């Protein structure tokens, strides 16, 4: 394929931003430094503090004099139980319109996640990180099951929503972002005849919805491997075709490295978008399944906790 020198000289950057007029009255003030730090590192910092509290508590369990039946240990049991019981306010706030006086749902979601970590930690200190009677062990294991389920749900939620408190991502919006366009390649596609064909073939292989739960669970990992291998294969073919064009045209030879960089950036970004679309289907399915099991786990925790309280205060066991 003969190169067009004028086309090479007039290549535009691949991802040049298009200026869009901002409607009057629609501008938002930029977030404060604290808000940016919180949005970016808040969750990780909270998880690290929670992990530190658990590690310190476990390592020091033999040196502390905490008893579940009295004193600080007993108080921690009451506090932890009340915090866990408060978790019910979030689903109630979502479903009962009369409770809108309690504040926005997103605020209760934030509280729900915080208490879902603090409450179980308080119960762990209440039990001094040790198993006790049958009823207390059942309550403790149920609590750990709910807490672990909550962490899984937090991970899946972030994969199918825009931001921690944002609306659910729309599959149609994601698909609109993976439409192939030769303009995104900075014009390099005309020198690599097989580029769009190779990328389209990759899209057909990847954009297949998962067929079951196991397929949904393994799909993100398989997509990561497939994306990397697909990227290397496409980029290698692009390099070959650009070398062939450079041998025929001195202009292509002069701009070969820039064209190659533009094409690599396009391929990398496109495969990233496609992987996100494909993974979204898997995460959305897992999130729907998680909704069906998390609430029964919580009910189990409530039942075992009530049995534990009755067994301790009525039968002293």
Helix-and-strand structural type: mainly alpha
Number of E-state strands: 0
Instruction: State the domain count.
Output: 2
On the 0 to 100 scale, the average pLDDT is 83
- Count of helix runs: 10
Major sheet details: none
Polypeptide structure, described:
It is elongated, with a radius of gyration of 27 Å. The protein is an all-alpha fold and 317 residues long. The protein has two domains: 152 residues; 120 residues, no CATH class.
Question: Which structural traits does this protein have?
Answer:
317 residues; mainly alpha; 0% strand
Write the topology of this structure.
Blueprint: H1 5-9, H2 33-59, H3 71-86, H4 89-95, H5 105-126, H6 134-160, H7 171-176, H8 195-206, H9 213-248, H10 250-313
Short synopsis of the structure:
With 317 residues, the protein is mainly alpha-helical. Helices cover 70% and strands 0% of the residues.
